[in-house]
Design brief:
The complex is a heterodimer. Helix content of chain A is about 40%, strand content about 10%. By secondary structure, chain A is an alpha/beta fold. In chain A, helix 11 links the parallel strand 8 and strand 9 (about 290). Chain A is elongated, with a radius of gyration of 24 Å. Chain B folds into three domains: about 1-170, Ribosomal Protein S5, domain 2; about 190-420, Rossmann fold (3-Layer(aba) Sandwich); about 435-510, Helicase, Ruva Protein, domain 3. In chain B, strands 11-14-17-10-18 form a five-stranded parallel β-sheet. In chain B, strands 1-2-4-3 form a four-stranded mixed β-sheet. In chain B, strand 1 and strand 2 (about 15-25) form a beta hairpin. In chain B, helix 19 (about 465-480) crosses helix 20. The N and C termini of chain B lie far apart (about 75 Å). The chains are: A alpha/beta, B alpha/beta.
């Protein structure tokens, strides 16, 4: 994998000099970033025309730029209120041009003019990997994302994702479990917790990791804000891993952003008839790197061997010979009958074995069938 | 001008003798009913005169007062038509009164004087026997059920004219033979027809052996209804007393198609739109037993459990706990027996495909959560066995051979029931499923391995106290099926596999 471009690799910053340098410009940018109809792309055009954020805001207020709604709204907004709301949720505003504004965002055709950030400082570029996938993930998909998150974090790689349910949440949690750095990019205001179920996860990330949003406090989640959020995830990451995704899901959009930006894309395959493997398979056909698990990912990223101390799975669980035999019969997702027939046993004889394996965390039951847990690989 | 005849009114399943006395006096022609007659009995006033006149008898054109005693008991049901008519005929001396005192009469009359099939005749006959009467006069169609009562003469009459003929000695009723003894139940479904579903078959066998209630969660088309229907076929056959109770209830509900004993276990599957009265019993006139009572000694199947009204689901607690249901009305409380095995079925989520490997669930997570909340709660506490029924693929179905026939499974179930009967005889519980949790915990004898598995389950499966008791009860039944005195680690592990957690995101196991 090639070295990632950093700030001074010849990529000229898109924004005019001194766009948000002065304090007054910063306050003007806060107002500008609150205007809903003023997309990052339009703001970039305005900035090139007028130079400073203050001049842009004046243009909007005088009706020379932006929509009529923006003009009225900009007149009502008080930058002091926005600043107060930002500090009330313990966030800070990082405008373009600031030292901690991530340079990789300049790779986007429509970079945000500033980011709202909570928690730890943003990670150094080049050591960030995104893990994304289905919200309605399967149990094994969730396990996979959790493992990837944990093993990346344990090697000092920051895990970035979107704090949604399913794969996103699992990868954040895996990273937190390893005590590593994780970044959640929100598709709503920096003070919001969306989805509501992720409130406690977001609180932990705010403490131990970083929460990022391009939206000021109070902005609700909206359907078009998630693709926009996905572009930031892709831009901030060095590579992007897609664990599961059904046809037409947002994971495909994230992967397309990543490909546009020249980021490496990894995909975890599944069974061909598994609807959740649709997006990974599409990506693999289009040239994404197939990974069979976290080991493949680590070696492709050149991270294998480094920093594994204390993480790897050491404990070999004791299983009885008959449990071991039953475990060996579980290929894919199988009915208890199938295991029983393979062993020449009856269903009532095989159920205690499967239950025992389940209690040892080696097998899980999914809708009346049984499958191996990814965490069990190599432990039996 | 006085006549006195015995009838019977029903309170719940019990018949109560009613003295029907008539007085014919001077005054304008009229018929007055006193003694707390219910609406259907009031109806009889206008029905009886045409019935008497059509039968070639004379209706006294004078002032008639009919009194039903005891006066504090509300009389309901059309079965009092015949006793009221006979009482008037006795008062007008159209029938000899010498035999009247030893007979109970029951039957609804048509305007032409024929006796139409009447619900609850078995209960009437039992009450007549208990009151020490020698015989009972019943409609021809109900003779079979009345004949189930031993040491009671059954006079089966097609119409009022024949009843009068019988009392005058001009007509002899056909003798009603005792109905054939209860033969092995004949069901039209069998477990041999079920392909695959090994875990569900096993779970239902355990449910039958221990009298446990079952919840089946599965996608549409997985076979939940098919499996539930077959549970009745592996329950042990009804004893004679049980058969009589079942027949009595079905007789009152008017569901006895042919006379005689109901020997097969009932299977009732009320639609989810059932009213509370339909489920528990009630009705505006004659109190009709509800679905829970019609499923007495059998299976109550509630398909689409989440679609039932919340109060309907909650109302099942009392029958599940006590094996009876008390319907309280303005006129008093009436009790019906209702000891059934509950089999509930539900989809895993509103769209039905959560956990299905070949179809993607399209439900929003909070909708799934709301849906699952309907499934949880106190009713779930009374369900020991909960399992996921997978929808089988064509391959999986083709790979399976047809299963064991119901008769083979039923033999094992009967043995297991024999095995557990003496254990709780002193405590008054017939089977493991009805044992209160703390008692099950105290009574269970288990190996150290079993104790080990249970204590590990408390940690790894987040087993709750109630879940712990349920696992012990089910493990006890599994041991009974195996003929073991002591719970082994395998028994407990298998019992733990019949638990699905419904409150969390996916169908994982937990307390």
């Amino acid at each position: 994998m090639s070295d990632l471009p950093v700030r001074d690799d010849g990529l000229a910053t898109k924004w005019p000099d001194g766009f948000a340098k002065a304090r007054a410009d910063l306050r003007a940018l806060l107002v500008l970033s609150s205007l809903r109809a003023l997309t990052p792309l339009k703001l970039l055009e305005l900035a090139r025309l007028h130079g400073s954020a203050r001049a842009c805001l004046t243009a909007v207020r005088e009706g020379r730029a932006g929509s009529e709604g923006d003009r009225r709204y900009a007149g009502d907004l008080d930058p002091d209120d926005i600043e107060a709301a930002v500090s009330a949720c313990e966030a800070r505003f990082v405008p373009v041009g600031a030292d901690d504004y991530p340079a990789q965002l300049e790779h986007l055709s429509d970079p945000p003019a500033g980011l709202f950030v909570r928690g730890r400082p943003l990670p150094i570029p080049g050591s960030v990997v995104a893990v994304v996938g289905a919200r309605n993930c399967s149990g094994s998909g969730g396990d996979m994302a959790w493992n990837i998150g944990r093993d990346l974090a344990a090697r000092g790689v920051c895990v970035i994702s979107g704090a949604a349910r399913g794969i996103d949440a699992a990868s954040h949690e895996g990273a937190l479990a390893a005590g590593g750095h994780t970044v959640a990019v929100l598709g709503c205001g920096i003070d919001r917790a969306y989805p509501p179920g992720s409130r406690s996860l977001l609180a932990r990330i705010a403490n131990e990791g970083t929460i990022v949003s391009e939206y000021p406090p109070g902005v609700p989640a909206g359907p078009y804000r998630f693709p926009a959020r996905n572009r930031i995830i892709a831009a901030l990451a060095r590579g992007l891993v897609v664990v599961e995704g059904a046809a037409g899901s947002g994971s495909l959009i994230s992967a397309e952003h990543a490909l546009d930006l020249g980021r490496e894309v990894f995909a975890v395959p599944g069974a061909v008839d598994n609807p959740l493997a649709e997006v990974p398979h599409t990506l693999i056909r289009e040239g994404a790197t197939l990974i069979r698990g976290v080991d493949d990912l680590l070696s492709d990223l050149g991270l294998d061997g480094a920093g594994t101390a204390g993480v790897g799975i050491t404990a070999r669980l004791d299983v009885t010979p008959s449990e071991r035999a039953a475990f060996d019969r579980i290929t894919g997702t199988v009915l208890p009958e199938t295991v029983a027939r393979g062993l020449g046993l009856t269903v009532p004889e095989v159920l205690p074995l499967l239950m025992s394996l389940e209690m040892k965390g080696l097998v899980r039951s999914v809708g009346g069938r049984f499958q191996r847990r990814i965490r069990a690989m190599g432990r039996v | 001008m006085y006549g006195r005849v015995l009838g019977v009114t029903l309170v719940g399943v019990r018949g109560h003798p009613v003295v029907v006395e008539s007085h014919i006096g001077r005054g304008l022609p009229s018929l007055t009913l006193t003694g707390l007659p219910g609406a259907p009995v009031q109806d009889a006033r206008d029905r009886i005169r045409p019935a008497v006149e059509s039968s070639g008898l004379e209706w006294p054109l004078r002032r008639i007062v009919v009194n039903l005693s005891p006066g504090n008991l509300r009389k309901d049901g059309p079965g009092l038509d015949l006793p009221i008519a006979m009482s008037v005929l006795a008062a007008s001396a159209q029938v000899p009164s010498n035999r009247l005192a030893a007979l109970a009469f029951v039957g609804e009359l048509s305007l032409r004087g024929t006796l139409v099939p009447t619900p609850g005749v078995l209960s009437v006959a039992i009450a007549a026997r208990r009151a020490g009467l020698g015989g009972v006069v019943v409609p021809e169609a109900n003779a079979g059920e009345a004949a189930l009562v031993e040491e009671l003469e059954v006079v089966s009459a097609p119409s009022l004219a024949q009843v009068v003929g019988f009392l005058r000695g001009t007509w002899r009723p056909q003798s009603v033979g005792a109905s054939p003894p209860a033969v092995g139940a004949s069901h039209d479904v069998d477990f041999a027809e079920v392909r695959g579903q090994g875990q569900a078959r096993r779970a239902l066998e355990i449910a039958a052996a221990g009298g446990h209630n079952v919840l089946m969660v599965g996608s549409p088309g997985a076979g939940k209804t098919m499996l539930a229907r077959r549970l009745a076929t592996i329950l042990p056959p009804l004893s004679r007393e049980e058969s009589l109770e079942v027949t009595q209830l079905h007789s009152i509900a008017g569901l006895l198609s042919s006379g005689g004993l109901r020997s097969e276990r009932p299977f009732r599957s009320p639609h989810h739109s059932v009213s509370l009265a339909g489920l528990l019993g009630g009705g505006s006139s004659l109190l009709r037993p509800g679905e829970v009572s019609l499923a007495h000694h059998g299976v109550l199947f509630m398909d689409e459990l989440t679609e039932f009204r919340r109060d309907a689901i909650e109302s099942l607690r009392q029958p599940l706990e006590d094996g009876r249901v008390v319907v309280t009305r303005a006129t008093g409380a009436v009790e019906f027996p209702a000891r059934f095995t509950l089999v509930a079925a539900a989809n895993p989520c509103p769209c039905g495909y959560e956990g299905d490997p070949r179809r993607q669930c399209r439900c929003l997570p909070h909708r799934v959560q709301l849906y699952r909340q309907k499934l949880s709660g106190p009713l779930l506490d009374r369900i020991d066995i909960r399992l996921v029924v997978p929808r089988l693929s064509k391959q999986e179905l083709l790979g399976e051979e047809a299963g064991e026939p119901s008769s083979t499974i039923r033999r094992r179930v009967e043995l297991a029931r024999e095995w557990q009967r003496p254990r709780y005889a002193a405590l008054g519980y017939p089977c493991n499923g009805q044992l209160p949790g703390p008692l099950a915990r105290r009574e269970a004898r288990m190996s150290s391995g079993a104790r080990d598995v249970l204590s590990r389950a408390v940690d790894s499966l987040a087993l709750t106290g109630r879940g712990f008791d349920r696992a012990i009860k089910v493990a006890r039944t599994i041991a009974d099926l195996a003929g073991a005195e002591e719970l082994s680690a395998e028994h407990v592990a298998e019992a733990l596999s019949y638990r699905v957690n419904l409150s969390e995101g996916s169908l994982a196991r937990a307390g």
